[in-house]
Give the backbone structure.
Amino acid sequence: MPHLIAYREFEEPISLEDMKCSVNKSAGCLDLWNVKWVESMLSEDGAKMICHFEAPDAESVRTALRQVSTSKTLQVWPGSVHEGPSDASINIVVERSFDEATSVETMQAIEDKGAWCLDMYQVVFVRTFFSTDKKQMVCLYNAPDAESVRVAQRKANMPVSAVWACNVLNPIP
């Protein structure tokens, strides 16, 4: 089933506990639209969230989330998932957007060239979501803090739209 990424912003920040309650309430609606929730990253300030789903299409995710969500912004895009060499826990999200389509290989080459910088700031790459239109990317890292990632990304000449600390929510098996 295709991977879909939902980017959500909230008018009123939500807590991790509120999000856990919302997830429990949405299970039936997700099932109705054949949407499987894989994981979510909620910003520490509760203002935005990235969610990873498997679903037939983006409209299934949009429809299911509109029925249960209080987010003011909802963008859903199909993409691919690229696992890193580490299974470290995720605590930092990096958003990237591109005016022109790019490739995972191009971005990987830039990151590989700046790997020394990531190491210097103790930034560990965990996973990337890359849009099928090749204009959006969300990268997940483990690092001491968001500022370490900002500095390492800047010194490695990586394009960055936003960097934020997060809490991860996963389905209960």
